Amino acid sequence: MAPIPPGIRLLVSFNRDQWYRALTFILTFLLYTSFHLSRKPISIVKSELHKNCSSVSELATIASSSSSSSDSQQPSLPSLHTDMDCSWKPFDKNNYKQLLGAMDYSFLCAYAVGMYLSGIIGERLPIRLYLTVGMLTSGLFTCLFGLGYVYNIHSLGFYIFVQVANGLVQTTGWPSVVTCIGNWFGKGRRGLIMGLWNSHTSVGNILGSLIAGYWVSSNWGLSFIVPGLIIAAMGVVCFLFLIEHPNDLKSMYAQNSSPGKSVRTKNWNGVNGHAEVYLQYKNSKTQAYYYYEDSVQNRKSYDTELLLPRDSVCVPVQPVVVVKSESEPSAISFIGALRIPGVIEFSLCLLFAKLVSYTFLFWLPLYITKAAHLDAKKAGDLSTLFDVGGIVGGILAGVISDKLGKRATTCAVMLLLAAPTLYGFSMISEFGQGPTIGMLLVCGGLVNGPYALITTAVSADLGTHKSLKGNARALSTVTAIIDGTGSVGAALGPLLAGLLSAGGWDQVFYMLMTADFLALVLLLRLVTKELSSTKSRPISTVELKEH
Question: So where does this one cross the membrane (predicted)?
Fold first, then answer.
C-alpha cells in the first residue's frame, strides 16, 4: 500500500469540533473584512470630490486669453471645462473640508448611537439573521452613494442621508462577530487568536483602498458600488454558513437522530466494571445521554458534548453528572454591564484611541495628497501601509498581553510610544519615500495595536468576567458598550480634523497627540493595579472555559 500523503494526514488529524472552529474563524474574518472594505472608499474619493483646481484654472486663463486674440467665439468654454473637470458639487467651494468632515461625522455619529442599541438587540435575536440583514442593507446604502455619480446627484442632503443610514445598519456587524468568535474560543491564548483575527480591519481597509483607487479617477461611483456588492454577497454567505454557538451543532445532531433510536456499539472488555455501552437519543430534549450497563446496577450518565461519530465505535466514557438550570440566563442590562470592573476605563480609553485611528482612516489619503503632492490613486496605495502596520501591531499586542497577562499595561506602553511617532509623522512632507514608508508602518502598528486589543481580547475578557457567573449572553452588550463609546471618538476625530485642517495640518496632529495622551491617562488606574499585583500569571494559564 502507498503511504498516505502528509497533507491528508494533517487534514484527518483535526476533529470535527476543530474544523467548525476554523470555519467560524475564517468566516467571521471575511465577514468583517467586507464591513471595513465598504467603509474605506469615502476616504479615497475625497480627493476626487475636491481636486486641486489651480492647474485647471491656469489652463482656463491661457485658453481665455488666446481666444480673445482670435476671431473665434469661445469665451464660455473655459468655464465649462473648469466646472466639469475640477470638483464635484457641492464640494467645489472653499468650505469643502467642513462638508467632507460633516459626511464623516454623520456616518460615525449614527454608528456610535446605533452601537449602544445594536448589542442589546443582538442578544435578543438570532445573530445569523441579524448580521445577514445588516450586511444586505449596508450593501444597498453603499451602492446608493455610488449611484450619486451615475445619476449626477449634487445634493449634500442625499449623501448625508446615505451616510447616516449606512452608519446605523453597520452597527450590526461588530457585536455579532465578536460574540460568535467568543462563543467558539475560550480564554486560552485569546490575545493571539484575537490579534490574528482582528487583522480583518486592516485587510478590509487595504482591499477597500485598492478597489476604490482602481476606479477613483475614471468613475468614482464604482468605488462604492463594487464594495457594496461585495458586502451584500458576504451577507448571503453569512446566512448560509454562520454557526453562532457550538451548542447549535449539538441540537442539529440530536434532531437528525430518529426518535427513541438506540444504537448499540461494539462490546468491550470493560472499564471500571462497565461491560457494555449504549448510545441513546431522547426525542423530548435536544440532549443526548449515555446509558451504562454493568453487573452491579444500571447507571445513567448525561453528557452535553455531542460532537462524536454516530457509527459503531467503542467510546470509553466515564460517568459524569451535569447539573443544568431549567431556564436560559437572562440578558444583562446596560447598567449591569457598566458595573463589570474595567468596562468604563477601557471604554473611555477606546474613545480616544479610536479617535486617532479613525482620523487616519478617513483623512490619511487626503493628507498624503496635499503633503506629499501625490495623485489620488498613489496616495490611496501609500495609505495602505498604515493598515499593514496595524496588522502587525494588533498581533504583537495580543501576543505580549498573553505572555504578561496584563492587557492594560500593554495598551499603555503602545500609547506612550505612539505620541512621538505621531509628531514625526506630521513632518511627512520633509521625508523622502523610504522614511515615509517606515513611518507609516510604525505609526500604524502603535496606533492600531491598543485599539485592536481593546475591541477584541479585552471585550471578550470583560464579557465573560467571573462576576457574570457564566452568563455568556452579556458578551454582545459589553462589546457594544465598549465599541459604542469608542465610536463616539471615531465620530469626533474626523469632524475635528475637518475643522482644524483649515488652519493647517499641524493642528490636526496636535489634536491626535492630545487624544493619545488622554487615552494613556485613563488606563493608569488599571495599569497600577496590574503592576502592583503580587501574583502575576499569563492569561494562557487561566482555565480554558467555553462560554
Answer: 19-37, 99-121, 127-151, 196-216, 222-243, 343-364, 384-401, 408-425, 437-462, 474-496, 508-527
Rounded Cα–Cα distance for residues 387 and 41 (Å): 14
Distance CA 511, CA 276 (A): 72
545 falls within a domain:
no
Chain segment 291-341, per-residue pLDDT in tens: 433 443 444 443 434 444 444 455 555 555 444 444 455 556 677 777 787
In a domain, 462, yes or no: yes
Nearest to 35 by CA among 169, 215, 182, 197: 169
Report yes or no on whether pTM surpasses 0.85: no
Residues 18-49 have pLDDT tens digits of 888 999 999 999 999 999 999 989 888 888 88
C-alpha cell at 193: 487568536
Residue span of the structural domain in which 492 resides = 15-49+90-248+331-532
CATH number at residue 360: 1.20.1250.20
CB atoms within 10 A of CB 459: 29
As a whole number of angstroms, the distance between CA 466 and CA 377 comes to: 49
Helices (H), 123-245: 127-150, 156-169, 173-184, 190-197, 200-215, 222-241
* C-alpha radius of gyration, the chain, whole number: 28
User: Distance of alpha carbon 379 from its chain centroid, rounded?
Assistant: 24
The residue assigned the cell 485613563 is 522
State the SS3 of 308-376. CCCCCCCCCCCCCCCCCCCCCCCCCCHHHHHCCCCHHHHHHHHHHHHHHHHHHHHHHHHHHHHHHCCCH
